[in-house]
Every structure is written in C-alpha cells, then in structure tokens.
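Entry:
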Amino acid sequence: MYSIIEQGGFQYKVTPGTTITVPLIAAEQGSEISIPKVLLTVDGDKVKVGTPCVKNASVTAKVIEHVKGDKVLIVKKHRRKDYERVNGHRQRYTKLEILSINA
C-alpha cells in the first residue's frame, strides 16, 4: 500500500515506515501529526484518485527531528565596479516517519 500526499507545496510518495523530509512544520519533536491532503491511494488493485484530494483519507506521521539543509550561497557582482556581495541561506526542514495510511 502506498499513497501520494501533498505537504508544504510538494508531493511525496509514501508507504508505512518510510522517512521523508518536508519544509518546516510547527510541531514538537516526537509528536504525531495527521496529513489530510492525500491525492492518491493504492492498495493492491484498489486505486482511489482524489479530485483533488481523496475524501476521508489521511496519513499519520511522527516528527523525528528538525534539521537545516545545506548552505546555499547567493553571490552578487558587478564587474569592474569593485562590487561583490556574498550571502548565505540554510533552509529548515522537518523529518517525518510515516506510521500509517488511513483510507
């Protein structure tokens, strides 16, 4: 059984027991959350496609930890003008472990 969910503007294919990294969620580490935006569920030969979401379906996940991604450098330069700026950014993410798919 697997499902396709939407979280933070991204779509993920999940099965029970998998770990995914999503944009930061305001939830405490170790807590369980429910993700209601289920776009598709597949259980053997049974396929349910939502328009846009499957009714009465949700995915239960556990928050493992909050992490930061790799640093992305932003470089600005004007040639021959002695202008050069370097800034950095680290995106924050939440790691989720999928516990169950409730269809």
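Residues 39 and 51 are 8 Å apart (CA to CA).
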